[in-house]
Amino acid sequence: MVSIVLVSKSLTLANGIKELVNQTVEHQVNLTVATNYQTPSDLVNEVTPETILYAIKEAYNDDGVLVLLDTYHSAHNAALAIANLEYDIAAHVSLCSAPIVEGTLAAASSISLGASLEEAKREAHKTISVKKLLLGENIPDFTIFPKNTNYEPVRSITAPVWLYPYNRFVIPRKKLYPHLLLEEQKRLINVIEQSKRDIDWLTEEVHRKLGEQYTHIFSSHRFLLENTELQLTVCSMINKYHCNAEFALQQTFIDLIDTYAQMDDDNMRARESDLDDILSRMLRYLTSSPPPLTQPPYPNVILVTKQLHPSTLMTLEPNRIKGILLSHGNPLSNTTLLANALDIPIINGAGKSALTLTNGQNITLKKIQNMWLYQNSYISH
C-alpha cells in the first residue's frame, strides 16, 4: 500500500492532518511526518532535506511514497532529499503539489481503497478544482504547460560554465542647457520607436519558434512602450530637472519596478525582469552600448548569470544552451516560461555562490521529478 509523507514546518499542523486522516481511513494508511521541532524559531525555517530524506526512507515500500508539502518553498528541499535516494527507490517517490489538507485526505482515501501511487496523486490534485467549483470560481479551460514534463526520477546534465555578463546601467545625471531639452526628448522618442521594432521582431521569433500562445510576453513590452503617460513622465522629468534622457528614463523605471515589487500578486512582482529588459534595451541605444552576447564560447554550455532577460534568451541558440543557472531570477518570470518552452533547464535563486563559478568550469545540474537542482551533494547518506 502506498505511504504518505507530510512535509510541514509546523508539527501541530502535521499532527492535526495526520489525526484527521487516521479518523477518516481508520489508520489504514501509513502516514509519516517530516517536520521541524515545535519551537518558535523552527517555524521560520524550512524542513531540512535530511529530515525529509529520513521520513521518506522510514515510510518507503515497493508501492511507493507520495510526498505532500505545506508550502512551495518545501519543494526544493524535498527534491534534494529524493536526489539522495537510490535510483530504484527514487523512481517510486512522487512529490505532489496538491493542497496539503484536502490533498492528503483525498490521497489517503483513495489509497485505502487500493489506489496506486499515480492514482493517489491524481485524486489529490482533483481537490483544488473541486473547491474552485464549489466556490463558484472559474476553472481555466487551458494551461500553458512547459514541454519538458516527461517524468524522469533522476537525470543530470554536465557542461562547462558560461558566465554571462549582467550589469545594470547606472546613469549619472547630466545637467543640460534649456535649449537642448527638446532635442533630448526627441532622442527618447527615437529610441522608443527603435525598441518597438526590436520587440516586433522578437514577437515574430517567439511565434515562429514556440507558437502564438507565448507572443503575449513581448506584446506586453510593446504595450508599455506605447504608453503615452510613461513617455510624458520621462519628458516631464527631462524638462523639470534639465537632465539627460538616460537619467530620466532610468529614474522613471526604477520607480515603476519598485511599484511592481510592492504588489501582493506574485505574478506581477515577477515582471521585474521584463521591466528591466525594456529599460536596458532603451539605455543601450541611448548610450550606444554594444548589444548582448549571443554566441556561447563553447559548443554546449550552462549559462550562469544573476538574471536573464526574456529578450536575451530568445536571441541565444537554444541547442547550445544546456541549462541556465540564475543566482537570482524568479520561477514565475517570463524568462522561466520561455526556457521551459524551449526545453532548457532553468534554476532560479541559486544564490550568490553561483556567480563565483569560472568560465569553462564543468558543473552538473540534476533533475528530480521535473525540478532541476544545483549543488545537491551536501546531504550525507
TrEMBL record:
EC number(s) per entry: 2.7.-.-, 2.7.1.121
One GO cellular component term noted in the UniProt record for this chain: membrane
One GO-annotated biological process of the protein: phosphoenolpyruvate-dependent sugar phosphotransferase system
Pfam families membership: EIIA-man (PF03610), PEP-utilisers_N (PF05524), PEP-utilizers (PF00391)
Domain of life from the UniProt record: Bacteria
Transmembrane intervals: none
MF-aspect GO terms: phosphoenolpyruvate-glycerone phosphotransferase activity
InterPro entries in UniProt: DhaM (IPR039643), PEP-util_enz_mobile_dom (IPR008279), Phosphohistidine_dom_sf (IPR036637), PTS_EIIA_man-typ (IPR004701), PTS_EIIA_man-typ_sf (IPR036662), PTS_EIN (IPR008731), PtsI_HPr-bd_sf (IPR036618)
EC top class, as a word: transferase
Domain PTS EIIA type-4: 1-135
Keywords: Transferase
Alphabetized Gene3D superfamilies for the sequence: Phosphohistidine domain, Phosphotransferase system, mannose-type IIA component, PtsI, HPr-binding domain
Signal peptide: none
PANTHER family associated with the record: PEP-DEPENDENT DIHYDROXYACETONE KINASE, PHOSPHORYL DONOR SUBUNIT DHAM
Family (UniProt): Belongs to the PEP-utilizing enzyme family.
Protein name: PTS system DHA-specific IIA component
Organism, scientific name: Proteus hauseri ATCC 700826
